Protein: GMP synthase [glutamine-hydrolyzing]
Organism: Flavobacterium cerinum
Amino acid sequence: NVLILDFGSQYTQLIARRVRELNIFCEIFPYNHIPGDLSSYKAVILSGSPFSVRSEDAPHPDLSQIRGKMPLLAVCYGAQYLAHFSGGEVAPSNIREYGRANLSFVKDDELFFDEVALNSQVWMSHSDTIKQMPTNGIRLASTKDVENAAYRIEGETTYAIQFHPEVYHSTDGKQMLENFLVKIAEVPQTFTPKAFVEEIVEEMQQKIKGDKVVLGLSGGVDSTVAAVLLNKAIGENLYCIFVNNGLLRKNEFENVLEQYKGMGLNVKGVDASARFLNELAGIEDPELKRKTIGRVFIEVFDDEAHLIEDVKWLAQGTIYPDVIESVSVKGPSATIKSHHNVGGLPDYMKLQIVEPLRMLFKDEVRRVGATLGISPDLLGRHPFPGPGLSIRILGDITPEKVQILQDVDAIFIEGLKAHGLYDKVWQAGAILLPVNSVGVMGDERTYEKVVALRAVESTDGMTADWVHLPYDFLMKISNEIINKVKGVNRVVYDISSKPPATIEWE
Ligand code: XMP
């Protein structure tokens, strides 16, 4: 187990992902919440930071329990921090040091630089520079502009690097992380999806014992993997509820329910479409739509959960990025949209929470899912927002509009699959616009709806770019939509990136 101390760098999660790719488990803690008991950690990594060590409000944690006592790798700000407080000197640099640079080795460190190329490319992102190394520092490498690009400390297993080994553009970055963790710190590489499954199943069994657990399935990857894991751990004591809010994709409720049953899950499908659509009638404001759906979902879920006698636990598909976000250095980042997921159940339900995926990143959830035998089809599904099609129908929602959008969306998504494009796209869908436009069909003038198609590439939904779908494909889909879906006479394609445009239109 490796501890990553976060000083607020945008790359901290990336360090964790690289470490996990080496089959080594790691946890991120904010610099001001260092765990009291460090005995289970075999190495510590200090992250970068947007701060300057010289600033008063910069993170200045006490590392006396760590430094010199266990292997330590200090990255960027971490490297400056070690220098600044241990007899070295950090100063603003004359040249801004951003982007690529090449390492030249000053002193051959056989372990740290093992299998690292001469002149290896590394990625820099800092405005301060280490003018003088800390006491007992031994310079290992420099670049053209940075004299102290890597150093270690005599008599300790402490290494410090000014560049970011975690980013893709540091060509041998992962190798250096591996060298530090495996060759120097001798951390075992035992964190595999299979090992995770074995461990978590046992942990869940011990925690839950013979109690009953209720879980809300959404058809998405996280809740599905959480359900299959719990099913493996506690079998029939897991009660899954899958709510149809009337805003799912075409036939999604029936299809997914079928799939779940085929996986041996104890799942109850609850069709509450009419209730949701009733409550949403006349609402145009996107946030009010989200709040209404969130509230009705909780009511429906609560009613259903009450039918299960003596239920003690609520299981959720929370994953690691949500956990880090809620304890991060900066606190949860500003809410741009109020994302509704299960969460926030009424107090009187008094259920204890169990979150089997809370230590995993999304790609790890997928790998665990694959280990559990969940179909690639289900694991590769595009993300779909909790409020569903409600936020893709601009303006008020009616059952007719939902049906039109479901038909359009189905043609688009099926088309992407048929043309081998589905897996190249991170997320896709259609949006029903609140405007009519003039068209001509046969000899008749029409005045009907416009739909927009959106397909984006992304890795985490935080930033995204529109996908350059082939014109031929767009032509076919547009034709099919206009010919088959009554009430639509115009199709447009959204060519906006995020930022500034969000993925969803509402
Ligand atoms: P935006 O539109 O903010 O979307 O660029 C980023 C990702 O989040 C999804 N999204 C939501 N998911 N409830 C959800 O569960 C929501 O209210 C919500 N709004 C957006 C969106 O589909 C994309 O994947």
Confidence is low (pLDDT under 50) at residues 332-343. DSSP finds 13 helices and 19 strands in the chain.
